[in-house]
Amino acid sequence: MEKGIPRSKAISHNRWLPFPTPSAYKYHKQIMTSVTTEIEIPSLFPADKVFKVFSDFDTIAPKINPDVFKSIETIEGNGGVGTIKVFTFGDAVPFTSGKYKVDAVDPSNCSYTYSFFEGDNLMGILDSITNQIKIVPSADGGSIFKQTIIYNCKGDEKPSEELLKIEKDIYEKTFKGIEAYGF
């Protein structure tokens, strides 16, 4: 560093340096690791009808899979973007609860996105869990339920493969149950 240049100014201009500085190294250490799981489930029913039934997830899931979903309650909002809900998990799940926020709802594209931001389902190792759901038409007149789950890790520790498989199985079973319940 040149004499006469305050350290704060030198660091604020480090983006122009061709090598990493200590502050640049700190920045890179803060980048989150994420793990993604994808689920695809074919349905015989059209996308718009599946989305309509799926939109009642809060009511249906505890009825069809109470060992997993004890209750789902809205604590703030009207169900649209920004709504905050709490999952209370059943005995088949190693967690008690998770709080999530609705990030996006698009009925015309049959898509819904929500993110868990608080609860023991984050296991102390996750900042958040984002669920992106989209139901797309299939060539046979039915549809495909697509869910992408993104686990945003606080550090290098990630959810176990076993946990990811269990969660994927739970969502698949729940979707099939909702489909059977709704049609």
From TrEMBL:
InterPro entries: Bet_v_I/MLP, Bet_v_I_allergen, Plant_def-hormone_signal, START-like_dom_sf. GO terms for cellular component: cytoplasm; nucleus. Belongs to the BetVI family. It comes from Centaurea solstitialis (yellow star-thistle). The lineage of its organism: Eukaryota, Viridiplantae, Streptophyta, Embryophyta, Tracheophyta. Residues 32-177 form the Bet v I/Major latex protein domain. GO terms for molecular function: abscisic acid binding; protein phosphatase inhibitor activity; signaling receptor activity. One of its GO terms (biological process) is defense response. It holds the Pfam family Bet_v_1. Signal peptide: none annotated. This is Bet v I/Major latex protein domain-containing protein.
